[in-house]
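Quick question: what would this complex look like in 3D?
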Amino acid sequence: MRLTQHTDYALRMLIHAALRAPELTTVGAVSEDFKLSLTHLNKVAQTLAETGYLHTVRGRSGGLRLALPAEKIRLGQIVLATEPDFQIAPCMSPTNAECPIYRPCVLREALDQAAQAFVRELDRWTLSDLVRHRSALLTAIGRK
Amino acid sequence: MRLTQHTDYALRMLIHAALRAPELTTVGAVSEDFKLSLTHLNKVAQTLAETGYLHTVRGRSGGLRLALPAEKIRLGQIVLATEPDFQIAPCMSPTNAECPIYRPCVLREALDQAAQAFVRELDRWTLSDLVRHRSALLTAIGRK
């Protein structure tokens, strides 16, 4: 069971933005520091701007900054915003009722409850928790 | 976030075995009733036999039956037995410490806790819960 690469990159981009605050970060800096694809990170930045997590500052000295304080950003909500869906099994898609036992089956309910438990646990963590070792993290990305 | 096809098929094979009990089921019958690949189901049956969920009866009238009562089979444990790993993000692999912030990063801990919450919730459900609409399920697979 895995999160998509999109979510993985989004979490790292938000960590980078939280570490760099109050300075701006850029997609290029995240790419360089984490050795991640610029093309993919551009899409991630777009998702995070559209969903209200990052604010884009335009211009020559522009970049990205958190649109909310780090302690207000809950991990479960990030994952819900960046995963394309939470269909733990194919039968959880509303447009996929191909399984012959679709109607009487109880498995969907169990998987849905488990997915909710996953998000609920992540919502106990904020972006602020992720950067609590700020000094060691800044050293690790060579920005100290 | 998705379970592997292997786990999805394993859950359906166990549902089939629980529905057919006390008669035996076969990989062929599961394939036919759920329209799933025989090749893949053979591998799933092997995993479920090796992990103590299915018992294989050899011979001409052989087949598969649950190795435990359905009410003793917890969904979280099935998923742990059939998923190749529970690495929600690449950094959760013990052999993958490529991320520059691997050591001071707290994200792994949050994801690990969330994965545990997912399994804990599934463990509240048994295979017996999944087949509580036995009559409707048997009708749906044309075995009534």
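Answer marked as accepted. The CA atoms of residues 27 and 45 of chain A lie 7 Å apart.
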